[in-house]
Amino acid sequence: MKIELICTGEEVLSGQIVDTNASWFANCLLDNGFELSRKTTVGDRMEDLISVFQERSKTADVIVVNGGLGPTEDDLSAQAAAQACGVPLVVNEPWLELMSQWFARSGRVMAANNKKQAMLPEGAVMIENPVGTACGFRIKLNNAWLLFTPGVPHEFKRMIHDHLLPFVRSQRSSRTPVKLAKLMTFGEGESQLASRLDSVTLSDGIDIGYRASSPQLEVKIFARTDAAIAKLDETTKKVKQQIGESFFGEGGHTLAECIHKQLIKSGVTIAAAESCTGGLLASQLVAFPGSSRYLQSSIVSYSNQAKKTLLGVSSDTLELHGAVSKQTAAEMALGVRQIMDTDYGLSVTGIAGPEGGSDDKPVGTVCIGLSTRNQVFTQRLQFGNRSRTWIRNMSCAVAYDMLRRAIAGQFPIADYPMLKRIS
Amino acid sequence: MKIELICTGEEVLSGQIVDTNASWFANCLLDNGFELSRKTTVGDRMEDLISVFQERSKTADVIVVNGGLGPTEDDLSAQAAAQACGVPLVVNEPWLELMSQWFARSGRVMAANNKKQAMLPEGAVMIENPVGTACGFRIKLNNAWLLFTPGVPHEFKRMIHDHLLPFVRSQRSSRTPVKLAKLMTFGEGESQLASRLDSVTLSDGIDIGYRASSPQLEVKIFARTDAAIAKLDETTKKVKQQIGESFFGEGGHTLAECIHKQLIKSGVTIAAAESCTGGLLASQLVAFPGSSRYLQSSIVSYSNQAKKTLLGVSSDTLELHGAVSKQTAAEMALGVRQIMDTDYGLSVTGIAGPEGGSDDKPVGTVCIGLSTRNQVFTQRLQFGNRSRTWIRNMSCAVAYDMLRRAIAGQFPIADYPMLKRIS
Fold first, then answer.
1. Residues A190 and A46 reside in one and the same domain
2. N or C: which end of chain B has fewer CB within 10 A?
């Protein structure tokens, strides 16, 4: 089955926004045993939309069209679909009704141009959008089913899960089974890990793929025949063994989500003191519901004054070793743990750049501390002259990994082949 | 002139890597007065490459093909181009010579498979790559010039600047210029704002587009003729006036980036106290270099204990009004400002869900406080039962907007048509 994606919108085409829906969609298909065969991006011009629908529908079986279902004038997808199919737009009464109820519930007045969102090509099948005012729809043109979806990422994702995946499963004539196992790793680069995993003998129908989604690296094991599926668990076990220390979890979760689950399960409490990460460490955990059970507080001590006033870091330490030092990281981790009386205290202090580096402490120098009830562990890493975002994300990841190891009873400081430790 | 882009490679199509070349290229074209009319992404299969070259060359004038020029087996662009054009691959002696010199200079031996990189379709015009081993080339097929470029971003960018831009300038028969203005807004929904902007009369060749990138909404004014470009400033001024209170900045920046710039410029200092945003408010500012100049600290006071210990919120207030109340928000904002002795203190406390709501304070209830040196402003908003991410992001945005207004000398609390204020 040939599945294609058509992304619409000047802002996607003109690069004003990076098209995260497209890469998410391609990954989602892969996870579910399908492959994307082509992606086309066009702007908001009517003739471009019509011609791409007509062209691609001759070759593809299912075409997901993303975007252009909004209430404004430059949202032309429904109209273009109607013209491409040679049918008029008609009001979809069920959706108009649902939309009215939606506005009534949220105490807002439905603007006149929202009614446009209930105008669908005649003969199209409406697809409910439980989280927005743009309904989706599907319509057959030439060889293909065109499935129109909203551009807002969470609405798009919901519709793909609720509707597209069941639909393509039902359309697939000869069922080619696919099963996928995912092993999450941290600290080793793709090429290095891949060459180590070359030594694992794989049965016919089993492939290994990699997806780098910094800071973690996902190892995907695909089984594409019934015989291969029967051997998937055994292979996964072997691969996991070969990965060794870098393995931190199964099933495609981020390191932050993994540590969140571990914290909930273990019943411990934590507090953090953040300098260069500036709240990112706490924020990535607070993204998950239930984080209030373990996260007592995080103190973003961006200035030296804040480090002293809020965390009790001594002036001597700051003067003698500097704000970015293992000594300061130790006092930050210890300070925040004692103030909040938690089981663990985490700290990060570093130079995220692009300015602020020195010969002694260049951009990318980050010190990370973990305080337990008995001990304080610190390490100084040199991430190199990477982007501010990369350095901040990697700093959080190392801190989570130290905590993960400590809770699991391992030594908190590990050797990461892809990262350079100074001391 | 119709300019298209074809991106090749399984890793781009399958979303393993985000295609930054494409968005960079589209932006670069726009900056130089051209528009990208379509972008197609295909994998590494020979038949897909040949068919996309043949298809698109019937419609487009210039097609930039990116990727697939490397030395390995899955780099098929040159071979596919040769087959699509019906010509053989031949050695390009000048490039072979340059490549040999390049390897000699860097003291390395040229691998056998690098010779593949000098095999070009017969009749193609070689394009030198001064920064890598993959030369580019261009060849005419049907209506279009196909221009093949390397996938490595800095090599690609160099070739676009040195070769593609001069080439398309020389090819352009009738100049169709484009200019774009962007106005950033916050607090009003797309449909409502669009219907208000309908009253602005637009000259021929000027269009308005919208891009919702929650929490902000971007209004884009495109001018597509010389006459339209001459009127762009005037139109932009009129649109800005009509937008009114929701306008916060020009040029496609986020609210966080705007407030960051304003804070740097005004020389004030701030501190934050965050509950449900959990460090996000600080983290979004720390993402920008230089934020240390104004951000003293943020205290993520997730637990009641932290609110008392770290911020001095009184037990009475917490007991009487609850952690999510205007009173608590006021004490948090005031507390953090006094502790850090800053010009402004910001606070957010709310229920981000999906659990933790009550009849009285359902999910989406958020109280936001701003303390100046003389006064404390608070508001209680009801965002509705939206996602945790949405509620947290919107909370930060409202806090930034309060601060922005205060620094600009406006009243900090505004009416946001898309948000419901309780008190």
1. no
2. C
Domain boundary among A209, A229, A250: A250
The verdict on A37 touching B (C-beta cutoff 8 Å) is yes
What are the Cα distances from residue B283, in Å, to A278, A296, B188, B365, B402?
5, 18, 25, 22, 18
Q: Please tell me whether residues B25 and B91 are part of one structural domain.
A: yes
Chain A interface includes B201 (CB < 8 A): no
Residues of B in contact with A19 (CB under 8 A): 19, 23
pLDDT tens, N- to C-terminus, chain A (423 residues): 899 999 998 777 876 666 788 888 988 988 887 889 999 999 888 999 999 999 999 999 999 999 999 888 889 999 999 999 999 999 999 999 999 988 888 777 888 888 899 999 999 999 999 988 899 999 999 999 999 999 988 999 999 999 999 999 887 755 566 788 889 999 987 777 888 888 888 888 898 877 767 788 888 888 878 899 999 999 999 999 999 989 999 987 899 999 999 999 999 999 999 999 999 999 999 999 999 999 999 999 988 989 999 999 999 999 999 999 999 999 999 999 999 999 999 999 999 988 888 999 999 999 999 999 999 999 999 998 788 988 999 999 999 999 999 999 999 999 888 788 887
Give the tokens for residue A21: 């829906």
A340 is written with which tokens? 């909040």
Could you tell me the CA-to-CA distances from B11 to A101, A210, A323, B41, B147 in Å, in that order? 43, 10, 41, 10, 21
Domain holding B8: CATH number?
3.40.980.10
Is the same domain home to A245 and A264?
no
Q: How far is B322 from chain A (nearest CA, A)?
A: 16
CA-to-CA distance for B107 and B90, rounded, in angstroms?
Answer: 27
Size of the A and B interface in Cβ pairs below 8 Å: 267
Please name the residues in contact with A30: beta carbons below 8 A apart, sequence gap of 6 or more.
Answer: A36, A180, A220, B14, B15
Same domain, B285 and B396: yes
Q: How many folded domains does chain B comprise?
A: 3
Domain check: are A206 and A310 in the same one?
Answer: no
Contact A282 B281 (CB under 8 A): no
CB A27 to CB B15 under 8 A? yes
**CA angle (A405, A407, A410) in 5-degree steps:** 40
Please give the residue range of the domain that contains residue B204: 179-250
